[in-house]
Amino acid sequence: MANPGQYTVNAGDIAQHANDVRIIAGQIQGSMDTMRRKLEALQGTWTGAAAGQYATLHADWQRNQGAVRTTLTQIGLALNGASRAYSTTETDVRNSFTPK
């Protein structure tokens, strides 16, 4: 573990990971949309007590999937913010050592 105040970072790597999270989150969302459409088609043809229980689980799944989507969005935004902050800080520090 680094000493307090000591760190090594590559802002470009962080930005790339933010982009990766965005791309993969989109892929996950696409797969979940496909699954949702298929499962909703099933619900349209199924009745009875078991179908009711299934509908409850389906609603839980949709809520949980929404939470995953929200979390991935937050991770991507945080990584983008970190990349910008590190880039700006490095530039500011470098500029402070530049003769005026």
Topology overview:
Layout: H1 11-43, H2 49-96
Task: Sum this structure up briefly.
With 100 residues, the chain is an all-alpha fold. The chain is 81% helix and 0% strand.
Structure description:
The chain has 100 residues and is mainly α. Helix content is 81%, strand content 0%. It has two helices and no strands. It has helices spanning 11-43, 49-96. It is rod-shaped. The model has no long low-confidence stretch (mean pLDDT 93).
Apparent shape: rod-shaped
Distance between the termini: 37 Å
Which spans have pLDDT < 50 for at least 5 consecutive residues?
none
Compute the number of helices: 2
Quickly list its features.
100 residues; mainly alpha; 2 helices; 81% helix
